[in-house]
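Sample entry (272 residues):
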Amino acid sequence: MVARIGWCFVGLAMLWSVVCAEPEADDQEPIKIQFDPYMELCRGTYERSPALTSVLYCWYDVRNAYGTIAPSKVEMINVNPFVALFHGILYEGEISQLQALGDSHIKRSGLTNDSWLPVFYEDHQTYTLHDRDHPVVQRLTHRVEQVTGLSCESAEDLKVIYNEAGAYIASDMDAIQTEDELRRFAYAGDRLASMLFFLSDVEEGGFTIFPKLRLTIRPRKGSAAFWYNLQNTGEPNVKMRYSNCPMLEDSKWTAKKIIHTRGNELRNPCRP
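Predicted structure, serialized as tokens:
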């Protein structure tokens, strides 16, 4: 019995020496864990490095006849990959018409005449508009071709999106990623570029962010964000994975036009 107690004290002494031993030089270096700054980007408080912002600039695009009459106001917000904002690309009447075309599809949460209790629907609703549905949709498609220099021959139909408070997208990328999408768009090719139209202002939240680029885009009514989803080699660009931050109040209207590679082989050729 005494021997067992003695061995117990010896074991405790050895354990204490291991715990109290000074760490080696390699163990003294702290482990650094870096997270994408989602919180700062969604709050709009993240400040980009002057090395990135100092090379950004704005210009009036007059490359074609449309630009000569009504030049596009372009703001470059990221150089590589290229991301830009087109300011004042939508008019108030066009925005109202796009929202009116979806009134029969959108259900808004809140009080109803049937009950004094509020009714809550899905906070993320979409509807699709083809060029033949209304002249304003066809005019918008033509405008996308003019300001981007790309062809909408194989582009997807315009998708109008309605979000209410609390709606968000944690992470998404427009480039084709699944076999189902690959078969679905076999005739059109991959998703070359995206144009996101802002149909309303948002008081708090609702930003579109690109965590890999440390980039925040604030919704501004009448403006549109444009970016490429593919690298020059034609492969998906993982840096263009984006998120939609939660809205704290109000609602948000956006519209999206996705341009595919078919018809743009000469306008935006692959560069191996």
